[in-house]
Amino acid sequence: MQNWMRHLRTLRRAFENASVGGPLSCMIIHVTDSHRDRLSGPPQLQSMGARIFTARSGCYGLWKPKLDRDGAEIKPGDLDESDPWCRIYTSVDGHSNIVGVMPTLRRVAYWGDLSRQPTFSSLCADASKCVLGLPPQVLDQFSEESISPISPDERWLWILFDLAWQQRPQSPLQTKRMIWNRYSTGPYDRSHFQRLSEMGVLHSDFPGEWAHRLPGFYFSELSDVFHASSYAIDMLIADAESVTNGDHDKTPPKTPDAAELGSQKRKSRRGRKMVSDPKEDARIAEAWASGSYEKHADLAQGLGLPERDVKRALDRDRKRK
């Protein structure tokens, strides 16, 4: 394993050296087969026009049985009907029903300093090979679709997003799954829309049914894939060292499953509920500081939030600073 670790450290320097210049940004769009019409992505991606460098689509997670956390197949009677990523299929013999994970498709788009995209793809292929040499306990945190994609450069890209979705407190590698309808976007989290619905402030762009069940599609962005790769390697090295040193208190966390975020069955969190999320406040403040919005109402509409919530978040973020 030490050989793979040396290669990862060498690759980290290569990603850092390649990061000089303008950022290379990336977006993935992930949809179930029944939502192919969403594969074109949110409006902001479409408006980029010629700035989109490449867009690939492929089938991931071909039909397979849905398993619970213990590895046992879920029975039709136990299926959470609000799960947007699964459905009940009839078996080949036609005599029984099986709960299966629906086939999904992903599309990739780059923008920014597009001249560096070939360099990134080349480094991705090298990083993918190194990752497969890490301990199984480290690889267990990723989904099967991330570890076994069609091409090596895609494997590294999926791993970047998997790690960013974990939102580890001390890591700068952070992003969220987002869902959209028309020109409005919001976090891919059913509980978010449920809260808005209960408060009576759900934006008209968002269907009321999203408070109970999200559809099977989302997008996610990374502002600079070179810096993201450096941060990801730091996380993987730390995870591998914890495993080899027998530090059981630092077992790599698993990436949150989209099915859990989109359905009603969610793990309950212990302890006092947070009144506000500092990270979310900082994200709203960053969006306001970008100068892309003239009024708080415009920012609120873009984020799919009530205007008063946006103003409160900006005020909280200002006071924290």
Task: State the gist of this model.
The protein has 321 residues and is an alpha+beta fold. The protein has helices at 2-18, 43-46, 117-131, 136-139, 144-147, 152-166, 190-199, 225-244, 258-262, 278-289, 296-303, 307-320; strands at 24-32, 57-60, 64-65, 86-90, 97-101, 104-112, 178-181, 184-187, 217-222. The radius of gyration is 20 Å and the shape is globular.
List the keywords.
alpha+beta; 321 residues; 40% helix; single chain; 9 strands; 3-stranded antiparallel β-sheet
What does this protein look like?
It is a single chain. With 321 residues, the chain is of the alpha+beta class. It has 3 domains: 219 residues, no CATH class; 40 residues, no CATH class; 48 residues. Helices cover 40% and strands 15% of the residues. The chain is built from 12 helices and 9 strands. The strands form 3 sheets. It has a 4-stranded antiparallel beta sheet. Strand 4 and strand 5 form a beta hairpin. Helix 1 packs antiparallel against helix 3 and helix 10 crosses helix 12. The longest helix is centred in the C-terminal third of the chain and has 20 residues. The chain is globular. It starts with a helix and ends with a helix.
